[in-house]
Amino acid sequence: MLTSLLRDAAPADCEACSEHRTNFLLREDSDIPLPARLPDELTTRPGMVRVQSGPVPRGVPSPWPFVGRDRELQAVIDAMDSSEPGAVVVAGQAGVGRTRLAQEAVAVARRAGQPTAWATGTRASSAIPLGALAHLVPVAATSSTPAAMLHHAVTALTGSADEPTLVVGIDDAHLLDELSAALLHKIVLTRSACVVLTVCSGAPAPELVSALWQDGLTSRIELAPLSDSQVAQLLSAGLGGIVGSRTSAELSRMSCGSAALLQELVQAGHETTRLRVGDGVWRWGAVAPTQRLIEVVRAQIGELNADEECALELLAVGGSLGLAEVVEVTSSEAVAALERRGLVTAERVSRRTEARLAQPLHGEVLRAQMPQEVARQLRRRLAGDIARQWRIEDPIRAGVLLLAGDGPYADPGVLATAAAHANAERDHGLAERLARAAVEDGAGCAAHVALVEAVRCQGRPVEAERLAMDARQLAVSADEAAHLGVTRALNLFYGLGRAQDAVSELDAVAASGATDPASCTALAARALLSFSAGRPREAAELAAAVLVPAAAGAAGVGARVLAAAALTGGLAVLGRTEAALAAAASGWAAAEGRVAEPEISMARLALAQSELLALESAGHVRRAELRAAQLHGASLAQPGPGGDGMAVLGLGSAALAAGRLATAVRWLTEAAALLVDGDPAGCLPRCRAQLAQAHALLGHRVSAARLLDVNAAAGRCAVRVFEPEDILAQAWHSAAEQRIEEAADRAVHAASVAARMDQPLVEANALYAVVRLGRAAEVTDRLRQLAGLVEGALVPAFVAHADAVTRGLGDRLDQVAAEFESQGAWLLAVDASAHAAQAHERAGRRRPAGRSANRSADLARGCDGVQTPARAQLAPLLTRREQQVATLAANGASNQEIADLLVLSVRTIETHLARAYRKLGIGSRIDLGLLLVGAPER
Ligand SMILES: Nc1ncnc2c1ncn2[C@@H]1O[C@H](COP(=O)(O)OP(=O)(O)OP(=O)(O)O)[C@@H](O)[C@H]1O
Ligand SMILES: [Mg+2]
Q1: What CA–CA distance (Å, rounded) separates 747 from 559?
Q2: What residue spans define the domains of the chain?
Q3: Whose CA is nearest to atom 3 of ligand 1?
């Protein structure tokens, strides 16, 4: 009866809390299936009705693993763990995960052997005296007076002194009826049980409930909305696997940090197949709200009058709008009411106040529900005066509204400008729609250039080439022909692998009598192609010709940024790192605040790639990681995903250089999936090579081989600058297959390819792989020569390593390892330490050998368990047990404590320690402490 009563009472107009939609009280004898999302079984003391309550699963197959709230869980447990039975309130906005946190805390207590109980306050049960907590009260007591009943209940809950304390979870305590609230208050006051309660922040609660924290009887934990990284953790745990970083950021934005909304979104994504896994990465197409999601969001929005509804619809269609315009169409009362309810926010942007929907998801749902005709009328209204206002201020928005305005307001010039801007913002899908509309309306060559760029960036180079050819006769000026020619050349080179044709096209632009700016752009593009083709010196010379002050006056921003990218890349592989980084900085300065030039979008991508290359190849690993993270953040901040592939590749590359191999695999897998959909700078082969290398170093031979096969089958592409990296990846794959000689041969080959391409720093990096693979003597002289050709401390460190290995100088190798470690290049430090251990060992210096071997092992653990031939040659000094005992001893444990911990006799511990001392060449625990320093912190 209670069940049906509660179920029927679930009100349509309830607040955002989920109690009405999910929580029921179920009697033990009920034939209704028990909910699956409960904190396992919850028990109460004998004599009470055993009740299971909790959210009813609605299509969500099982709860997601609990992640991301460890600190909060610990805080709840600590609060309950005080000497007397403690009480703690978990407060938070709707959906943040209050119930789950309380459930987890109760489950921890249950696993520790404490009896537990659970109850839920609901809007329906709040009307029934003791509605929520009846099941905690002994059946006999319920018929007595309230005072007697409370007394009985508390006595029963307290139990006898030798029984463990009962832990009670009370969900949504703000909805308790007065009598339940009184009982709860009494339980807490008399410390009869440990209590964890949840309340919805800001919701009115019975006086006796709010008195709990106001009078200091409970501690209160405010559960903040999930952060972006917590959302990423939840998604990855819930979906299992890699979740694309834009998808994660987008879902975080739409859910506003609510775990409940996040789950609803994921569920809707599954149902509409918008959330799909491909190439090992979960990605989100676009929001298509399901009926269920619409219901949830509608419940959040609540009742609206006609003006309020209209204002929300207007904002759903128009994005952010001037507050005055929204008020003009609706009414100031409506807008004020929406603002008060937190549905609309208003903020000052330059000289006017802009209004927008507070939650992006509301816009999605409102648009999905809006009748076509209403949407059309609203767009028409917006497409008129408002769109005209936006031409300058926000050309993309103006273009989008014109696009939706059904023709009468169409203006091909605005559409073409909007398309160019959308390309610059990397929203190539939108750019394509805008450019096509502009082309249909008879727009000129600029619209065609934007269309070619949009199509090529979406991975359709053949179609882009056809469009470029069709557009040729439309160019009415030399400048227009130049823009088209450059865009076509980029497509020929990076999309179609037709390097020679691309160069001819650029030469034609330069010779076509175009004005200086157009020739400069062609020259800059030539420079970039030279770099990509593996001719860094030529690239640097061409780029410098664009950037010399005289030419710079003529060169447009696009040309200057393109040239800076080519110069940075060229100087990077030539080993002129500082000059490369200075060129990058000047490129970024030129690009600042500029978006619409057709070349600038490509130029920015290339500049980012070159800058990271300069940092990584010179061994500035930490700086590379930081910069890659910044560039990735900037890419995610762009409305379109077109730059994400290269940004994520940057993260993966930097992680690989740092030796964070698992992280590298995660990012490079995502990058590969993204680049398959659009690879404007021909980075996919490099991405696969790096992913193969990361896999190989982790011992994943099959995955590495598969990726290298795909690269081999793809054939030669015009981008050749990264060929040595591909050959090096093959080398590490051979090493993973234990074909060490073959691996070293391949590394030698990679070095010779780099040498042929005049890339001394890349050559040095490849030769250093030869050293790590055990053939130092063969390459030391050449490394020494290269150290004279390139800047920085990296190659001298390579030389020092090669020389010290050949001469058996363990201490010198330890120094080299420390140098690498201080730069964040742990992968290199692992092998340098391993070689140091071998050198010490050969010299009969057991103690330093032990220290270096341990260092190498620690570093290798920090590199996610990297497996290299240098490490494989290290005989394990200590057995697993000896290592375990020695580490505990080094951390200050006594023999007795170690024996207790490992359930061994003290005598056995002594034997293990004696053996460890002998092997490590030491004589005391103090020495052990010095030797086993533990894994370094990253
Ligand atoms: N840290 C977490 N890890 C995994 N899943 C979580 C986490 N937090 C919440 N969830 C899941 O998100 C959903 C919503 O969480 P929960 O019901 O605890 O939120 P709430 O704040 O109690 O919401 P409401 O306002 O609806 O009561 C649940 O399915 C829950 O299992
Ligand atoms: Mg809840």
Answers
A1: 37
A2: 2-223, 228-288, 410-513, 515-616, 619-682, 880-931
A3: 66
